[in-house]
Amino acid sequence: MVTRLYTHPIYLEHLTPAGHPERPDRLRAIQRVLDDEAFAALDRVEAPMGDEATILYAHPQEHLDRVRAAVPSEGMTQIDADTVATPKSWQAALTAIGAANAAVDDVFEGRADNVFVASRPPGHHAEKTTAMGFCLFNNAAVAARHAQKKHGAERVAIVDWDVHHGNGTQDIFWDDPTVLYCSTHQMPLYPGTGAKNETGAGNIVNAPLAPRTGSDTFRDALLSRVLPSIDAFRPDLVIISAGFDAHHRDPLAEIDLTEEDFDWATGQLMEKASTHSAGRLVSLLEGGYDLQGLAFSTAAHVGRLMKG
């Protein structure tokens, strides 16, 4: 198995206010844990700058222009109560898009079996026309469209196990049966979407989890709802919106998962990718705000990707 890692120093220069949970230290924690000799075989590549035009795969020109205009030459701009832009935010966001698209290219063109992208800002809350929830552009949505447009993928499955529902991804693909969106998430919790009866064109599968549930409930949600949906859909590519904030240490939610749960879930999705997608799997970092929980969970996730 060849597992590729994309990251870039520019991601550390997207700054947030003191005390903000989505902070550069998140990537430093991931970098430290992946520097362990256990990950020596990881194929590490600097993330490329993205093509601005690919943002339009998931967002209209007006949204792109609005985000770019919000990026200040100095200081910090508040986009909403949770989301900010600083001078390097545009470059960081464009490089996050670039890494996601490059990861798709890698798995379709045979340079890697699977890819993990450690980038920020995250993306799954970014709706078609709204930056929110720490997110400027929807990296997973752009990557899915890139797979369809460049590589002829007919069906792409996005599995989102971030503890917060990916309202942005759901919004973008709501009426598009060529993209399956499956989400496990705590409910009630920000952003308030993700009920079971939100099904789009039959391509949206939400599996909300009650607060204080843990491994058994999470695994049952994958086994009973998510994995059968993938089998029925038969995707050409599996994308994971890999948030690790359902870890029991995380301060923003109350789902009690461990790193072993992320190891297990990764293995389950790799099996589905092997069955339906010639093994093609791309994982994009979303949330995860306790540094130890994030680091250990990422290590478990990437370790499983490398094992095959």
Layout of helices and strands:
Blueprint: E1 3-7, H1 25-34, E2 43-46, H2 61-70, E3 77-78, E4 84-85, H3 89-109, E5 114-117, H4 139-151, E6 156-160, H5 167-173, E7 179-186, E8 204-209, H6 215-233, E9 237-242, H7 259-276, E10 281-285, H8 291-307
What does this molecule look like?
There is one protein chain. It is built from eight helices and ten strands. The protein has helices spanning 25-34, 61-70, 89-109, 139-151, 167-173, 215-233, 259-276, 291-307; strands spanning 3-7, 43-46, 77-78, 84-85, 114-117, 156-160, 179-186, 204-209, 237-242, 281-285. The chain has an eight-stranded parallel sheet with strand order 2-1-5-10-9-6-7-8, with helices on both faces. It is globular, with a radius of gyration of 17 Å. Helices cover 37% and strands 15% of the residues.
What's the quick description here?
The protein is α/β, with parallel strands linked by helices. 37% of the residues lie in helices and 15% in strands.
Which oligomeric state applies?
single chain
Query: Rg to the nearest angstrom?
Result: 17 Å
N-to-C SSE string, H for helix and E for strand: EHEHEEHEHEHEEHEHEH
- What shape does the CA trace take? globular
Q: Approximately what portion of the residues adopt beta-strand conformation?
A: 15-25%
Give average pLDDT, whole number: 98
The beta-strand count equals 10
